[in-house]
Amino acid sequence: MFSSLVFFRDRRLLSIFVFGIASGFPWVMIGSVLTAWLKDESLSRSAIGLFGAIFAVYSINFLWAPILDRVKPLLLGQRRGWIAQMQVIMILSCVWMSTLDAQTALYQIALCGLIIAISSATQDIAIDAFRIDTIGQHENDTMSAASSLATAGWWTGYGGLGAIPFLVADLPGWEWQQIYLLLAAIMSLCLLSVFWAKEPVVDRASLLAQATQRYQALLNHRSSLFSKIASWLLVSLVEPFREFFQRSGARLALQILLFIFLFKIGEAFLGRMSIVFYKEIGFSNSDIGTYSKLLNWWVTIIFSVIGGMVNIHYGIFRGLLIAGSAMAASNLMFAWMAEIGPHKGWFMATIILDGFTAAWSTVAMVAFISLLCNRAFSATQYALMASLSVLSRTLLASSSGVLVDKLGGNWTLFFILTALMVIPSLFILYRLRHQIRRIEGDRPGNRQV
């Protein structure tokens, strides 16, 4: 299995890792930091959980993903140009957030968080497309390595850099508003990395030529200008979805989408309430920064690489199966921590297993979805499938605080329920095992569509 490490020496993976950092860091801005700020301002668990509804934009970003496939910014190219623009918006939004007071400007905070979420979700479209466009159509093993480093980068942004605001929050004289200025400065460093990344070269026009001609033929009775505009819109908005369902078959496509939707729902319910749980049982901001962020960061990087090696050696199906089973086990460890209280040793053990499951499952899922994408529509098709995974992690999981309240604050039962949520996706995964193995050997790439 260690022979798989050769695929990690590819220089293209460095940019993929750095962009992964930029992808994970916005979740600190509107996730853990915002949750901790609102908790310190004495908002209820239900209110904090509902704030997570702003993450729903990640689940619908496929609606504007075709724009990123067809519209090229004036500077830095198709992928890097969109990444840079979105990062500038997030930097300015953090500066705005630093001027707001949670007691008197809650609606403005929600609006600012929504702007960050939309910008981040759009950035993710471009970053995922950058990764798929950068790796060649037959480089399946390199794609698994790229997926592992993208995951390691995401957790570096979310966990490694995400520990900084929590460690700073306990220092004298620091308020959460000032911390948002710090977050803006860190994102500015991510912006610098866009300038030395190499823009992937994809002749998208030739890939789309056949589809464009087909739609123009259907519209040939119209005026030339109308035909060109209508065919451009149809190729941008309809063709990515038609191509995916035609290639996979409607039944298999729907099963794949349902699996993607269900796979991480239990992890999402747990993750949305984890900071609230840590604070309620007695852990300090420094404890959370050290264990939940810094420790989890290193654990995730290590297991992201190991997960990529496993996927290369044993296949994505086994990677998904192992990760899904381990997710349920790690959620049960949280249930036991709810019983024994703020025990740092158990906290460390729980974080290690949770980091393993989060990393491994994400690497396998990212590689799986990437293999399903045609490079002609890499932004749109990846966004469509990834958004389904995010939908369960955001829109549905925003009710996690309500669920804890309905259970009377019984954290043990809550974590047991999140473990059971994994089972339906594993059942679907087992039914799809032959199709997944076939997909691994037949990645759609630079084909005419």
**Strand share of the residues?**
under 5%
Structural class: mainly alpha
Major sheet attributes = none
Number of strands: 0
CATH-level-4 superfamily name = MFS general substrate transporter like domains
Give the termini distance in whole angstroms: 36 Å
What CATH architecture do you see? Answer: Up-down Bundle
Mean of residue pLDDT? Answer: 77
Q: CATH class, anyone?
A: Mainly Alpha
The Rg value, from CA coordinates, equals 22 Å
Whole-number total of structural domains: 1
Which descriptors would you attach to this protein?
449 residues; mainly alpha; transmembrane helix; transport; MFS transporter; membrane
Q: What does this protein look like?
A:
By secondary structure, this protein is mainly alpha-helical. The chain has one domain (2-440): Growth Hormone, Chain: A, CATH 1.20.1250. It has 23 helices and no strands. The chain has helices spanning 12-24, 26-40, 45-51, 65-70, 78-97, 106-134, 140-160, 163-169, 176-193, 204-207, 209-218, 224-237, 239-248, 250-263, 265-281, 285-314, 316-340, 344-372, 378-396, 400-406, 411-420, 423-431, 433-440. The radius of gyration is 22 Å and the shape is globular. Keywords: Membrane, Transmembrane, Transmembrane helix, Transport. The chain crosses the membrane at residues 12-34, 46-68, 80-99, 105-127, 148-167, 179-197, 252-275, 295-312, 319-340, 346-372, 384-404, 410-430. Pfam families: Acatn. It is a multi-pass membrane protein. InterPro entries: AcetylCoA_trans_1-like, AmpG_permease/AT-1, MFS_trans_sf.
Write the layout of secondary structure elements.
Elements: H1 12-24, H2 26-40, H3 45-51, H4 65-70, H5 78-97, H6 106-134, H7 140-160, H8 163-169, H9 176-193, H10 204-207, H11 209-218, H12 224-237, H13 239-248, H14 250-263, H15 265-281, H16 285-314, H17 316-340, H18 344-372, H19 378-396, H20 400-406, H21 411-420, H22 423-431, H23 433-440
